[in-house]
Amino acid sequence: MARTVPSVTVLFLMFMTAKAFELEIIPAVKVAAQIGGKLLLICRTTGCESPVFSWRTQLDSPLGGTVSNEGSTSNLAMNPVTFENDHAYLCSAHCGSEKKEKGIKVELYSFPSVPVIMISKPLYAGEKGSIICKIPNVYPADRLVVQLQKEGELPFRKEFYDDPSDKNTETKYISYHFTPTIEDIGKEITCVAELPIVEMEFEPKKRQTSEKLNVTFGPQNTAITMSPNATVEVGSTVVLYCMSESNPPAKILWGKQQDDKSIQHIIENYTLIIPHAQLSDSGLYICEAINAAVNKTQRTTVSISIQVPPKDTMLLAFPSDAVKEGDTVTISCTSTGNPAVHIVLKKKTGDVHQVLDSEGGNYTIHRAQMEHAGVYECESRNELGQQFQNITLNVKVPPQNTTVLIYPSESVNEGVNVTITCTTYSNPPPEIILKKVYPYNKTILSSKNGTFTLYNVTRNDTGKYLVNVSNEAGTDIEVIEIAVIGRPVEPEYVRPVIIVLSCLSVLTIPAVAVLVYLSRKAKINGSYHVANAPGPKV
């Protein structure tokens, strides 16, 4: 038989299965909102199909947001969050005659970004600089704590508890003044900012940023290294390298000091290469390190010595290697080499070498004589080798001590050959000319060896003669006189013989007569020739 359930029991069961009307607000009781950010408050009911929502502040201030309802949910959106939202909010929900209400406190803060480090630039080593840490848009600023760290050290810390706090975001700064050193280069500076509000839940409450120090300084400890070393043999390759500590890196200029102390610019580079080094490459080299950022320069030098055996040896005579007797002449020798060369002057006579008392490679003869003529030698030497040069000095001597001899004598018979011999002392050998003085100054003969022959002299050869002896250095003249004695008168029988012979033949007589005539004429006039004989003494 069916069992009947009482209606009271049914109503009780329905009541027990129906959900009660409830209200919740999200987030919970309190929320921290970032000024300038977004915040969404959610009010939600259960156990009511069509709730009616309302939002208000406890002081009935403007909501500062936008409300949107959908079913059992009501949203209050704040975008952006401003100081108008710094309230306690109430959400009310009506379900029929029943009402529920929940409250939430919105607390504001502002800590939007990491600190900004500002370093005075450039930082100069040894000069005061500053580091500024900037924390933008902080609220509440009186709760801010900032510390500055350098490589883990804590050189500076500041709390802003004593600063008056307005209802506004603030940008806070801390400054740290210090004198940087070269050791600070690359060290890390860290700015740590904290907003340690314990009663508010938000993240992050600590922000930090870091930056490495860059300290500018001028060139220092500039040094030159060289390979193989500062003293090398000629033809070697020399490599010079210049280093300098500087920030920013220094510009390196190479130069060489000239004889007048001026500097010849060579190259802009850390390395200077001298290939096939010559003697002229010896000298003082300058490395100049320049940092334009600090307008500072540092120099360092090195002396390079190229070892060279004697070279370019030159031996000269001043004013000339051919001088007149009595003139002043200087024998001068020059040579180059490294180490410095030693010069020795010598006079060579056969196999004998006479060392001359010279000074600085110069030897002066004040009154040149014939014995000074000859070969002079210069020896230039150093520890690497030696070099020789020769020169021949010619001393010109004018004719002197001239002697004239006449053979067979100064007085001869007509038809005799007369030989005139001239000897003299001179350099170079002279030219000797025989001249007849009377009736006019007429050159008769010229001779290199000083010997003249007058053939078949006649009375016309009688007179004064000049023997002119001359060379580049001068002239000497000797006067001689020759007397020619006439022949005896011919016998009278000669003419009849000639007449008789002429009658013998019409054809032969003219020819014979011509021959006789020519023969006699030759005897009457005479003739002159240069004969071979010993030359003049020089």
Automatic annotation (TrEMBL):
Residues 1-20 form the signal peptide. It is found in: Cell membrane. One of its GO terms (biological process) is heterophilic cell-cell adhesion via plasma membrane cell adhesion molecules. SMART domains: IG, IGc2. The keyword Glycoprotein applies. Gene3D superfamilies: Immunoglobulins. One of its GO terms (molecular function) is integrin binding. It comes from the Eukaryota. Residues 6-107, 219-303, 310-394, 399-483 form the Ig-like domain. GO terms for cellular component: alpha9-beta1 integrin-vascular cell adhesion molecule-1 complex; apical part of cell; early endosome; endoplasmic reticulum; external side of plasma membrane; extracellular space; filopodium; Golgi apparatus. It is a single-pass type I membrane protein. It holds the Pfam family Ig_3. The keyword 4Fe-4S does not apply. The chain crosses the membrane at residues 497-518. Keywords: Cell adhesion, Cell membrane, Disulfide bond, Glycoprotein, Immunoglobulin domain, Membrane, Repeat, Signal, Transmembrane, Transmembrane helix. PANTHER family: INTERCELLULAR ADHESION MOLECULE, VASCULAR CELL ADHESION PROTEIN 1. This is Vascular cell adhesion molecule 1. The gene is VCAM1.
